[in-house]
Amino acid sequence: MKNKLPLFVVVLVILVLVSIGVISAQGNPFGAGNAGGFEASELPVQSPVLSKAEQAASLAYWTPERDAAARPVVMVDFNADGGIDREGLRDAKEVAGQSTRFEAGAANPNAEALARSVYAEEWAAAETAAAEGPAVVEGTSEVFTGYVIKESHFHKWYPHKFVGRFKFTNGSGGTSYCSGTAISGNNMVTAAHCVFDNNTNTWNTNMTFTPAYRNGAAPYGVFPTSSCWIWPAFIALPASYSISTWAPLDMSVCDMGLNSTGKTLNYMVGWAGREVNASYTRHVHNLGFPWNDTNWPIGTWWTAGRYLWACVAESAYYVNEVRRAGCNTGGGMSGGPWMTKYEAVAVSGYVTSVNSGLIYNSKNLYAGRFNSSNFTPLCDSGAADC
């Protein structure tokens, strides 16, 4: 006859397993009904950690010619119709979560003088860059205003200097780029598809970040990644892009190495604030480096990924944990921040999402909402917590 454990022991074991996450009480940390969910017991995965020599090699890889030849990642959902999941919207209001904010921070007081001295040619190139093109482009699909950051000095002011161009070699060996944002802990946040190639199931290489990038100029230097963190469920996604399944997972936090002066990212430019569990409907500044917009020819200077662009709009619910906001740009905006409480020429702004992709023939961009399940663990995983 087999021995049986007393009932109270069985109950106690179950309660312990639930409390430590072996048995998930919720199952899906994004909430019921979200197709992009994953088991709570899973942990973020880390890209290969680069040595200082390997980081230096990443910096050396990016010649001006390779920078100019880089093409954006373009994530287009050809099957979605753009209709709002209204039943999900009703439920989403009930599980929005408690909003938590982390404040923006300023650069070291000596960083500006150091940058102007060491990167004098870069500053001169940025100052003399062309400043023509449309000041405002009004969208029609959604209510928004899109414009290029025209003034040659404005990209180096807060909060624009937090945002930069993120370059890499993809799994097929091609040079490409996205957008990214400096956050606390000398980290950068971007889209997961900018650090991992689902077509080849490999990590991207030669990954570098240039804050305040302008037409090839790097006024604060270039920073290599040390390693990046994404969700294993993102790695498991099929290569065919779908906003509803990709966007809730499409975010990455990268530990950044030093620039050529030996200074950290936060020393040189400071960091943007961030907010998790923000409401779906917010007034956002969507920032990034697009290759094209829908109203002007592809490859014109202000849209060829060379200059910072902004779309100002009110974000809205799309499906569970995914937001949408009007914008007339496409490839190159991937990984760029959806910033609330934006204030020009001030240490300001909370990153609440990063661009994931778009729906074919739509003037909207889509992004996963930062929440305590999909974003906070990424920050907690890095060598230097956010």
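the 2nd protein, sequnce then structure:
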Amino acid sequence: MKLSKKLNKNNLLIVGGTGFIGSNVTKKALKNGFKVTVISKNKCPQNKQINCVDYINVDISNEKDLHHILKDRVFEYVLNLGGYVDHKNFSEGGKEVFETHFSGTLNLVKSINKDTLKGFIQIGSSDEYGANIAPQKENQREMPISPYSIAKTSATHFLQMLHRTEKFPVVILRLFLVYGPGQDSSRFLPQIIKGCLSGKEFGTSSGEQLRDFCYIEDITDGILKAMKSDSVNGEIINLASGDPISIRTVIEKVKTFIGKGNPKFGKIAYRVGENMSLYADTSRAEHLLGWSSKTTIEDIPSKYGCDLIKFRLAGTCTTSPALISRLLWNLYLFVRKFLFCDVDCLYVARHYTIYFIESDIRISQRLSCVKNLLSSVSIVFT
């Protein structure tokens, strides 16, 4: 492994930089000395914009507009996170999905200044593997089963062709299931957590699928390592935990962590052609990047609020302000790190904390004590 590129004061373009992964990479890139420009299809709200970042609104599937925006700009690095995960069939609108992911990548490559380009990082998907046998390895032939996965696969082959024929400096990073704070509420884990918190019955598949979950901080570390590496151009590299876990087990763990939940297994059918075992072989990432994931699903509650949840489930009562303060703070950390939604978590934290206090500490008897604590945990109640 050779990590020798000097990154200070380099210009980085992040396509899709306002999304979950993109915004986290943006923050880490700034800390690593990059000057960051973000392209997004939709305008980033002012309250979500990051200081020192140049935000540009343009649809990368529109070649004319994209070329006009980029023609006079110079970037040493480009990270392509453009598009969105969408498993719809071609007849249900898959043409637009394909155009966003493949045509958008084609337009991006045509529009950027290649004379100064040191690295192009393409974010691929585990969906490219389709029905391949697990653990999925980078040298397996892709078997796409949707417009989204064929678009990702097509982009991979196009970029590798450019590397072979024109020495285009590209690396393709295939991500599996990424999770962490700030994730869109429509994604799997936030949906399960909100479903459990509601106490109402919610439908899921039978949950027999084996999947690979990787924490956002680990993923951003891997992306930055790929930017720094001189030896990965032309490569496909899986960024994942490499640890399979069933969807049913994840749901049951969330239910246990939260202390309630009513999932209805088998109510939702599996997707047509869905691979029941989709988890990565990560040996190439370890060899070429010196990278491996450090966080597991098990780590989240143990780091952020496990003792609080156990405290609530046990029905223990306490009059100690110090203990209440510590438990409330752990609750805040638990909500922020495990609910994956910075905006909604404040509401949920407020609701859940009140529930915790009323049911276990008997707020009628401890009200003065709790009020005295509000200033020390005001971030929860703001």
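Residues 147-166 form the longest helix (20 residues). The chain has two domains: 11-180+212-241+278-295, 300-381.
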